[in-house]
Design goal:
The protein has 323 residues and is α/β, with parallel strands linked by helices. The chain is built from 12 helices and 12 strands. The chain binds (2R)-2,3-dihydroxypropanoic acid.
Length: 323
């Protein structure tokens, strides 16, 4: 066993924790409560590697310490907007993430939200549970057909492409893409997709827009009142990316006024706290950040962290470097 000291910041699947414990001196978080900024800062002085996740706020303040022992931050998750990458880099720390392994499951949750909003599944379930369903009738809880729609995808990375696959092959939707760089034509052709440069145009054309871009400062409130004002009547917005990408106050307003047909959110700005405006907005389905939450994927994410960690500890290049 290596004497390297490793901190796992939250409770992980047992098989992955066991694998880590075979090779390293591991500290686990058996209480499964998110660490504070002070605890994370102290950890930088104590551990060779920290294995954090989205609930660990590793902003600039965490790196404001003179005593840093940590060489590696191997994130459990693909998104890393909770880590100040420049500060980590300045401290000489290698950061990695876990792409690929969660793309299908996250796209599944985006599709779940699209269908739930279009077919009013959240409302329907609540009605049945409350004992308020009075029976089938031709005008009861009428939603919107999900097939054959125009679907916009913001961010055409691996998760965006998996969502396109589901919408195109499963629901015969026409795919439009907005991405910060030009997407290779053969990638677009796989889904008969058209790339648009203009986000407003995407909102004007599409019946559904699903967000799959990174979070962080660069994309904070990318979807704001100006963009939402362009929405085609009835448009459904789906966010499984990061909460900060959407201005939720503007979103709630657009739902209240009927500018937007509906929204499905798996991620929230400041989660797990939900803004009252968001909670009270009509035609909204909310899930508790379930994108990657399947037994298979959570183990694969962990094993990908182990692979990255092993490489760094062996002095070789990790598979998924962020910096
Ligand atoms: C991811 O992998 O980014 C998930 O959202 C959890 O962090």
């Amino acid at each position: 066993m290596s004497t390297a000291k490793i901190l796992i910041t939250r409770k992980w699947p047992e098989s992955v924790e066991a694998e880590l414990m075979k090779h390293y001196d591991v500290t686990r978080n058996t209480d499964d409560v998110a660490l504070s900024v002070e605890e994370l800062r102290a950890a930088l002085g104590e551990y060779d590697a920290i294995l954090p996740t989205v609930t660990d706020n590793m902003g600039a303040a965490v790196f404001q310490t003179d005593h840093i022992r940590t060489q590696a931050i191997c994130n459990y998750g693909v998104g890393f907007s909770h880590i100040d990458i420049s500060a980590a880099q300045a401290a000489g720390i290698t950061v990695t993430n876990t792409p690929d392994v969660l793309s299908e499951c996250t796209a599944d949750i985006a599709m779940t939200l699209m269908l739930m909003v279009a077919r009013r599944a959240g409302e329907g379930e609540r009605e049945v549970r409350a004992g308020q369903w009075s029976g089938w009738r031709p005008t009861h809880m009428i939603g919107t057909k999900a097939s054959n729609k125009k679907v916009g995808i913001v961010g055409f990375g691996r998760i965006g492409q998996e969502f396109a696959r589901r919408a195109y092959f499963g629901f015969n939707c026409e795919i439009f893409v907005q991405n910060r760089s030009q997407v290779a034509q053969d990638k677009l052709d796989q889904f008969g997709a058209t790339q648009l440069d203009d986000l407003k145009a995407l909102f004007q054309i599409c019946d559904v827009v699903s967000l799959h871009c990174p979070g962080g400062d660069a994309n904070r409130h990318l979807i704001n009142a100006d963009i939402l004002a362009q929405a085609k009547p009835g448009l459904i917005l789906v966010n499984t990316a990061r909460g900060e990408v959407v201005d939720e106050v503007a979103l709630a307003q657009a739902l209240q006024t009927g500018t937007l047909g509906g929204a499905g959110l798996d991620v929230f700005d400041g989660e797990p706290n939900i803004k009252p405006e968001t909670r009270e907005a009509p035609n909204m389905v909310m899930l508790p950040h379930l994108g990657s939450a399947t037994a298979e994927t959570r183990v694969e994410m962990g094993m990908r962290v182990v692979e990255n960690l092993n490489a760094i500890m062996a002095g070789t290049a990790p598979r998924d470097p962020v910096c």
